[in-house]
Design a protein that fits this description.
- The protein is α/β, with parallel strands linked by helices and 188 residues long.
- The chain has one domain (2-187): Spore Coat Polysaccharide Biosynthesis Protein SpsA, Chain A (Alpha-Beta Complex).
- The chain is 29% helix and 25% strand.
- The protein has helices at residues 29-38, 53-59, 77-87, 106-114, 142-146, 155-158, 180-187, and strands spanning 2-8, 23-24, 27-28, 44-49, 66-69, 93-98, 122-127, 130-138, 163-167.
- The strands form two sheets. Strands 5-4-1-6-8-7-9 form a seven-stranded mixed sheet, sandwiched between helices. It has a two-stranded antiparallel sheet with strand order 2-3.
- The longest helix has 11 residues, at 77-87.
- The radius of gyration is 15 Å and the shape is globular.
- The mean pLDDT is 93.
Amino acid sequence: MIGGLVLAAGAGERFGGRKQLAELEGRPLLEHVLSAMAASPVDRMVVVLGAHADEVREQVPLHGAEPVVCEAWEQGIGTSVAAGVEALAECEAIVIAVGDQPRLAPEAVARVLEARAGDALAVRALYGCVPGHPVVIERGLFGRLRELHGDEGARVFLGDIPVREVACDGLGAPDDVDTPEALRRVAE
């Protein structure tokens, strides 16, 4: 079973708050990512929430994603990753996406999943030679993901292991929305 993990627990401080609910093309920002992941070849999807969790559950169509509330979300992305991995512990691999990448394409998710094989314990998308999301993590790394804390994401150890990188140019866009200005750029 392949799990899909969407990280959306942050408070959106640089954005000015509630980034998950910001509108893009008439839909909440987070819904764009959930919709893309739901259209991809994942078998089970979890969205990790934290700040504004109740509002997000009420206002964002989850497209089949199971909400997992990370009570320690304020400690950083590492705790959100750990909570999501715990919820998907039975999976053979997990595709990680971030909830503020609204141009994520289901085809990019499919491409990184198709690249799983050999000695690589992780596969990550490249956009113009720049690493981005989605990232596939094999079960052999789940223990390390559960140990993450603070602002450490999987990037902390991806440099130490075999990672297959897959070009995803032309399959969506890697842009994260961290500020209102970035949201305006993505909308254009």
